Amino acid sequence: MDFFAVQGKLHPTAPFDFHKSLRFLKLFGPEKNEQLLSKNSLAKAILVEKQVVVIHIKSIGTIDRPVLKYLLLSEQTIFEEVKLFVLDRVSFFLSIYDNLESFYRIGRHDNVFNPVIRKLYGYHPVKFLTPFENACWAILAQYTPLPVARRMKKALLQRYGTKISLHHFELCAFPDPLDLLYANIFEVQDLLGDDNKAEYLLALARAFTDVDDDFLRYSPYDEVYDWLLSLKGVGAWSAAFIMLYGLGRTDRVLLSDHRLISSAARFYGKMVFVGISSIAEQYGEWQGYWAHYLRVAA
Fold it and tell me: What is the pTM of this model?
């Protein structure tokens, strides 16, 4: 099949190490096996109002002079507004325009954390492509072993996602809220094997269909966090997780998260059990980056 194609270049904010992003994606449980990865490139499908677009990204620069070459492919014409939407999503997904200078300046004054910065220098955290996908994963992963949650997500992708074949490989774009809004509750229950999670996912679809994207991205942290907490099945951990990995809101972390405490303890030792709040506070609006770097380094 012939594809419509658009290509160009992106210029991430230095330092930017695309290889570290790829390395993270190879191990990132929620996204594992949902994209094509090579030593120097990434291909992933995204849904834009029923149009599937594949974005192929390849690094052609260096850590301190980063350049990403992109190629967009679709079975339909890629209009300018579609191109801009896809590039915005991918830029968010890879955090390519985040300026790490302030974060690194704070971290270098933290003798414990400074080696973590050296190890992960240039790594811009990878997030979920959309907040809705992140919210769905938060529901699937609650109190569920990772392999089981992945199996549930794969079932959702196969049934409600939109597929596209590319060079003998099949990529699947995660469904948008409308794709699940009118799904049959009994069908979703059968797919997941969990009645509560099925109910929560359909409630998420209703909520994310109605909410404004600008509200999620730009409203005060507490307003968005409280909105997430109001959703059926979303608790404190899930809300904080979505704020960070679905919306890029890095200014706070859930300090009671046992995964964060465990990761931090590997570097800060016993002091983290009494001083994690004061350690996190020194990172200000970069607390989310600090927490993510700790988890990746651990």
Answer: 0.92
